[in-house]
Amino acid sequence: MSTEKSRALEYGILTGAAVIDRETFMFVLQGDENATYDGVSVWGDKAPTAKIVVHNTKRDSWGSLTYADGTFLGGLGTIAGGYINGHKRALVVNHMGRVAYLEFAEGVNQSEKNINHDTNIIFGSDNTRLIGNHFYVAGGDRRIAKRTAPNEWVYFTPEPDLEAEAPDFDAIDGFNEKDIYTGGDDYNLWHFDGEHWELMDAPYGWCMTAICCADDGLVYVGGLGGELLIGHKDTGWKEVIGESDTGIGDINFIQRFHDRLYVMTDTYLWELVDGELIGAQFDDDNAPTSFGHLSVNDGVMLVAGAYGAAFYDGQTWTNLIGDVTPTDVLKVQLMEQQVDNLEKVRDAAYDIDEAIKSNGGE
Questions:
Q1: Which of 64, 98, 219, 250 is the most buried (most CB within 10 A)?
Q2: How far is residue 47's CA from residue 184's CA, in Å, rounded to a whole number?
């Protein structure tokens, strides 16, 4: 590992990841509170901070970003990015609404004022998107925020007269700025055309945690318990996977890549096959071994977790972070299975021995 890469990634665990374009990958790293050096905490009596890391594969460069007012504070980060009028842009927002806006080639990387810092605005893993020429963030009290200029946001809600503490929006995506879907807690899937809101006829009570407006023209919605809803406002909705039908856990992200639908949970990457979510199959030692974050952009798919990241171009995987291979993971799993089998044999032998003794045998 190069010194530049080591410095960018040191003492942190990955809590956010996204593809900006096929040569630019971004991560949010939260300081690992358990990190030590020579047996002493690297943080001393200070709480760990977070930082933004950018990797450019073309230049093989790694850098962590700081600002005039200090590091990017506060843990979990959601990232969105791409091109606005031909210029590469990215936005990072953490759970407290703190904003970092990146302009890359122009040499300007800046922090901005918090999004609506007087209200709980930021929730969910999948709540930041570049839609059209603007960044959108879904958040608390059933609202979305649209960045219109540096330090300027406008807010939209389907129910402006609703009392505070309304069900939150946890996820957002859109085909364009006049065709946006957002959802969250308590039967809470909405369509927004830039001016008007429509509550979708999708009466399912589970919490909606991830949304993908896919290239096949369909909208995919994931739930807190692994549920999956597919449809569109003009054609209706179908619950493909319902409550208690899967044990995969919370769906954090949904993406469609090379005509396949992928779903990311904290523990693994899943693929929708014949109406069921099955574990993605890897046959490449550069494939991911750490999971939790999923991003697709500019023809590549990024899979990342607390201690690793790899991207896929449709044919091969490229490892970016981490030195554990799928083969290593398989070896450990086989060893664990062998140990488990030995324990079962030992327990069976013990039971046989006890049975012989109870029957008066030697």
A1: 219
A2: 31
- Placement of tokens 């550069």 in the chain: 286
Average pLDDT value for residue range 159-186: 85
Q: Which residues of 327-338 are buried (b: 16+ CB within 10 A; e: fewer)?
A: eeeeeeeeeeee
Pairing of strands 292-297, 276-279: unpaired
Instruction: Please give the Cα distance from 263 to 280 (Å, whole number).
Output: 9
- Output the CATH code of domain 3-324: 2.130.10.10
Radius of gyration of the chain from its Cα atoms, rounded to whole angstroms: 23
Domain map (residue ranges) of the chain: 3-324, 325-362
- Closest among 121, 73, 124 to 100, alpha carbons compared: 73
Average pLDDT over residues 103-120: 68
The conformation of residue 126, written as its DSSP 8-state character, comes to B
Which residues, 6+ apart, have CB-to-CB distance to 244 below 8 Å? 225
Q: How confident is the model at residue 60 (pLDDT cuts 50, 70, 90)?
A: very high
For the ranges 17-31, 103-117, 259-273, which has the lowest average pLDDT? 103-117
326, 285 Cβ separation under 8 angstroms? yes
pLDDT at 333: 46
> Residue 254's closest CA among 287, 283, 288, 230?
230
- The whole-number pLDDT of residue 236 equals 92
Pairwise pLDDT comparison (245 vs 256), residue with the higher score: 256
**Contact at 8 Å (CB) between 125 and 169?**
no
CB-CB contact of 12 with 31 (8 Å): yes
Give pTM, 2 decimals. 0.85
DSSP state of 106: G
3-state secondary structure of 84: strand
